[in-house]
Every structure is written in C-alpha cells, then in structure tokens.
Amino acid sequence: MMATRAAPFLLRRVGLAGLMVVALGALTPLLASGQSAAVLYKDADLPLGEKLLREHRCAECHSRKVGGDGSAIFRPLGRINTPGLLRGMVEQCNTELNLSLFPEEVTSISAVLNRDHYRFK
Q1: How far apart are CA 103 and CA 118, in angstroms?
Q2: Which of 39, 48, 100, 114 is 20 to 30 A away from residue 10, measured at CA?
Q3: Closest CA to 107 of 16, 51, 44
C-alpha cells in the first residue's frame, strides 16, 4: 500500500527523467559486469556515432562544464572504468538533455568515445 502512494509522489517530485536516471543507476552494475568493449560495441555504427557527437555538440557542452577543449571530462576521478559505465554515462546525458537517442545511437556514440578516448578492450 505504501509503495502505491509513494510512486505518484516520487514521479511528481523527481519527474520522469529523474526516475530514468535512478533506473539507469540500478542497471549500471549489470551493464558494467564484465562486458568487454569488443562485445558491447560489436555492432556499433561508428560513422553514426561521430555524426551524432557533432550534431548534438557534445564537445561544446563538455567544454562549458570543464573548460578548455572539454577533454578533461573524460575519465573523471576513475568513475568511468568499464565499457558499460561509459555507455551508461552517455545514456545519462541522453536522458538529462532530452536528446531522444535510440539505444543503438547511444551505443554508437559510446563506441566512438571508447575508440578516441577510453580504449577499453
């Protein structure tokens, strides 16, 4: 009974985007649990990922957040140390910024970031 009353309150309080971030947080350990980059990014469309990074001006946003060319945002204090966590962070940007990316687009962006910055195996 308590959970039924709490759900509408929680939805009003944090909104749908907040609930999605909470859900993502719950799923992140599953995403990060040993999937190699080769498996996670196997079917990623790298040209699509590059195009989406340009279209959504990700580097400009990162530059505003951390200064310089924005590359300091990569590998923040060891928080992103697996391919799954990288994909989860891209999904978080997708959710917070209402980009409406499909899962395969998030994977493509993550694969490009992995190739260019993280180099997870």
Answers
A1: 20
A2: 100
A3: 44
Listed by start position, the domains of the chain span 2-118
Residue 32 contacts residue 82 (beta carbons within 8 Å): yes
87-106 confidence digits (pLDDT tens): 999 999 999 999 999 999 99
Nearest residue to 46 (alpha-carbon basis) of 102, 116, 93? 116
- Count Cβ atoms within 10 A of the Cβ of residue 114 and give its class: 0-12 exposed, 13-18 middle, 19 or more buried: buried
Q: pLDDT tens-digit profile of 7-62?
A: 555 445 545 555 455 455 545 444 444 689 989 999 999 999 999 999 999 989 88
Measured CA to CA, the distance from residue 33 to residue 26 in angstroms comes to: 12
| Token couple for 93 | 């940007």
**Token pair of 77 as six digits:** 């204090």
Residue 75 phi, psi (nearest 5):
60, 55
